[in-house]
Amino acid sequence: MSALDAVRVAPATNPVSQSVRDSMVVAKRNLIRMSRIPEMIIYGLIQPIMFVVLFTYVFGGSMQIGSSTSAVDYKNFLMAGIFAQTVTFATASSGAGIADDMHKGLIDRFRSLPMARGAVLTGRTFADLVQTALTLVVLAVVALLVGWRVGSDGSTDAGRVLAAFGLLLLLGYAFTWIGALIGMSVRTPEAATSSGLIWLFPVTFISNAFVDTSHMTPWLRHVADWNPFSATVQACRELFANPGVSPSDAWPMQHPVWASLIYSALIIVVFRTLAVRKYRSATA
Amino acid sequence: MPGAIYAEGLVKTFGDVRALDGVDLDVPEGTVLGLLGPNGAGKTTAVRCLTTLLRPDSGSAVVAGIDVLKHPDAVRRSIGLSGQFAAVDEYLTGRENLQMVGQLYQMKAKAAKARAVELLEQFDLADAADRPTKTYSGGMRRRLDLAAALVVSPPVMFMDEPTTGLDPRNRQLLWEVIKRLVSGGTTLLLTTQYLEEADHLAHEIAVVDHGHVIATGTSDQLKARTGGERVEVVVHEREDIPTASEVLRGFGKGGTTVEDHMRKLTVPVTGGAKLLAEVIRELDTRGIEIDDIGLRRPTLDDVFLSLTGHVAEVKDEENGKEAVK
């Protein structure tokens, strides 16, 4: 047998189509997995639903949005923030999933196969995106049930509402790449879950998600205005025509849709590069 | 011409630890090399370098005729790897796991499906094919892992401690599978801490310690290096030990070792079974009652001891893992 005979598996014709195909195989694997652990999805839903209910009824009457202290206005203000926070929490599950694969030796197996180098992580992030989309649908229904309405502060249309959900999914997808990097960097799934969540609290709270930033001290407000997370929240409020769109002069607050797109794209490029590099040299 | 697995001067360091300190290997096509050594000796690191998972700091390696450092992708198409852990997705069924691996080896979905059926049959997993693998026993999971490594019938296989943690029955089963595989022409590099396993499966053994290959040869050659055979006697009465010792001295080629508490005497000899018969006759003549007597050949444990100066100690799992990181 010569060296040439040894290569029995035909090399893929096109690296891009191979990459897409491999990513889909891995995404399918992760989706099957998720469907067999339904409790993960359920628990993933309980937290945002709890946030919707608690924030609406506990904070609802005491929050000032612009010049209004009405509970109805706060409810309509709040939802964009909760949606955005929820999609970023996918970071933890994607990180934990990848850390688990490392831990169990699956990453080694994948790395010894003639498959596209980014496919394991891309497949995982695709599967997480599907889960995020499902979560968003359920959450939107709950939000409607507690009285959230789009167009409450002006007019909007279905296209704008869908665009807002598109931005949310893009943000969630970008954050799963941060999770992928965390998952590749820590040793245990437990560490990935906690390190995937802890930093999300300051990121989502020092923002316009739950309060009107005009009541913050100036330096904190500055941070909040430039927080990538705030851009998506602001964009959603604008597209939903919900109250509380921040009148700040900061560029991301003035052009929130563009800012949201640019931030998410930037996060994907940076963290995908770092995570895939880490994957290539991973040692379990 | 170099063998199906060939390595020269592989070095890999992790911080201060020199996990591989110039490893040379040459495995002729169709044979089995047993890489034998304690945890932390560098076995896993060697496998990881040869399977493209890890880039060595220096040295070169050729697997299935392909340069590992220059064409890692081509190497990955020609090898199968079964690592230390059964790397299967526990929430997927056996069938789904094998199909996924097949597709990632770039098989078409239909071909991957057919191959999965074949392998499940061959590895005696057909009945469990549609159960999630977390319901499998350790032995079944190991078999599935091995099946996954064989999806494309790779010409070169690597197995890192394939039977660690298996009960004797499953170990036997796995040994049978490995033998069948090798008789089909596959070249195999197998790491193990079990001296018996290397003895049983490998055509050639490379003993590794502290990142070096400290000896290579067939099992018999290695044993011959440690010295020949010896006679072991267990006497029935403790007071017979001095007399027995005197008898053995007459036949032996060296000093007699006495393990008092076990009433066991050992002496190196040459002369085989014929000599053993004479020893028995002589002991009988002197009226010494014996519980056990035998001609023992050195075990690989003895080999390891004489080569390294220490027994093949098994460090605890965590330390072993640290050392290969």
From TrEMBL, chain A:
Keyword Lipid biosynthesis in record: no
Domain of life: Bacteria
Membrane topology field: Multi-pass membrane protein
Pfam families assigned: ABC2_membrane (PF01061)
Compartment(s) where it occurs, according to its Swiss-Prot or TrEMBL record: Cell membrane
Listed InterPro entries: ABC2_TM, ABC2_TM_bact-type, ABC_2_transport, T7SS_ABC-Transporter
Single GO BP term: response to antibiotic
Chain ranges passing through the membrane: 41-65, 77-99, 129-150, 162-184, 191-211, 257-275
One GO CC term, this protein: ATP-binding cassette (ABC) transporter complex
Main localization, broad class: membrane
KW rRNA-binding (keyword) present: no
Keywords: Antibiotic resistance, Cell membrane, Membrane, Transmembrane, Transmembrane helix, Transport
GO molecular function: ABC-type transporter activity
Family label: Belongs to the ABC-2 integral membrane protein family.
Protein name: Transport permease protein
Lineage: Bacteria, Bacillati, Actinomycetota, Actinomycetes, Kitasatosporales
From TrEMBL, chain B:
This protein's UniProt keywords: Antibiotic resistance, ATP-binding, Cell membrane, Membrane, Nucleotide-binding, Translocase, Transport
PROSITE patterns: ABC_TRANSPORTER_1, ABC_TRANSPORTER_2
Protein's UniProt keywords contain Membrane: yes
Pfam families xref list: ABC_tran (PF00005), DrrA1-3_C (PF13732)
Location in or out of the cell: Cell membrane
Superkingdom of the source species: Bacteria
GO MF term (any one): ATP binding
Keyword Transport applies: yes
Enzyme Commission number(s) of this protein: 7.6.2.2
Family of the protein in this entry: Belongs to the ABC transporter superfamily. Drug exporter-1 (DrugE1) (TC 3.A.1.105) family.
Name under which the protein is recorded: ABC-type xenobiotic transporter
Originating species: Streptomyces regalis
